[in-house]
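HUMAN: Mind sharing a backbone?

ASSISTANT:
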Amino acid sequence: MADFHQNGNITTLHNLRARSADEMEHELSVFAQSRKISLILPCLFSELEGQAMPHILSELSKVSYLHRIIIGLDAADEAQFRHAKTFFEGLNQNHIVIWNDSPRMLALGARLEAMGLAPTEKGKGKNVWASLGYLIGCADSAVMAIHDCDILTYDKEMLARLVYPVANPTFPYQVAKGYYPRIGGGNLNGRVTRLLVSPLLIALKRVIGDRDYIDYLRSFRYPLSGEFAMRTAILPDLRIPSDWGLEIGVLSEAWRNLAPKAVCQVDISDAYDHKHQELSPEESNAGLNRMSTDICKAIFRKLAADGTVFTPNVFRTLKATYYRCALDLLEAHYNDAKMNGLTIDRHMEERSIELFAENIVRAGQIFLDNPHETPFIPTWNRVHSADPSFISDMTAAAKADEEDYL
């Protein structure tokens, strides 16, 4: 059974099992009459061939309160785009598949590049950013949500609980972040949150002292979840990271732009499982190896922007402190898993901690060597200022692709 603990930094909205999903969905349908709700699904073509996506579509087809679904499709050729359009025909809502690799979209990308505003690398961040641009161009939604496309345990109640805090006009929240336990296959999962982010934030507090931003991040029960809901008024000024720091970056943007009372986290599931990244210890630009470095850089950049001074000695001390904190937390996670009949591979967990410890120093050195690095994609406000017709041209290009590739 859920608790009802509030730590005072941000609001936590629990699932106390006292209200049916049908009742919540009915209320969302009422809200949606005057506050349209849209959903963004950033996906790779390969995810259409996976186990999760057909079930997600089946669940979404039952949702009545959604005004629009925007599918950002990456890594697809023309034949795969045509297949994707057929694949998503089962959705009952107004929807569009944005082919991010289409000739029209590539031409628009070249236009951005000529202005010095193009995203620096492909990936989920660029996909989300482009989908947000399309949504801004539509100018008809008050609320939007994003969730991943590889959720094996998906249920439409997840979406209802995610969007409710920002869709309810009597609530003050501009951003809602989903949280859940990462369990699946009899295992306690969520390695990067458990073994990197949580102990790193504890270590940072010990090494550099109290920081409001650290307390803010520590308030989130699952800071790396890919599930967000937002009121669309904040989207034009939202800076989207182009690397694996997307989730931390969005939380940092909420910290930059909003008061804590405008941010909440919401319990959206009792059990959540999706595909797992490989550790990839031999490949610094792949898997959890790359992800952990990018997450560390995102946190370091934000703390530096708020006035923290980092040196090589600070990063060396941080590594040692993190390592001790991570091992202590591993013991706690092992016992928690054991009590709940779940499994943890302690050898692999300790290998992960050793890699993450090295990557704290690596990320710190990258930060010190490139203090002016700005991996953020320009905000849509900036793009509009540089090229006032760009958003409308991109919206038109996405619609033209839909029509031309029937």
Summary: The first helix runs from residue 21 to 32. The chain has a mean pLDDT of 94. DSSP finds 15 helices and twelve strands in the chain. Residues 72 and 98 are 5 Å apart (CA to CA).
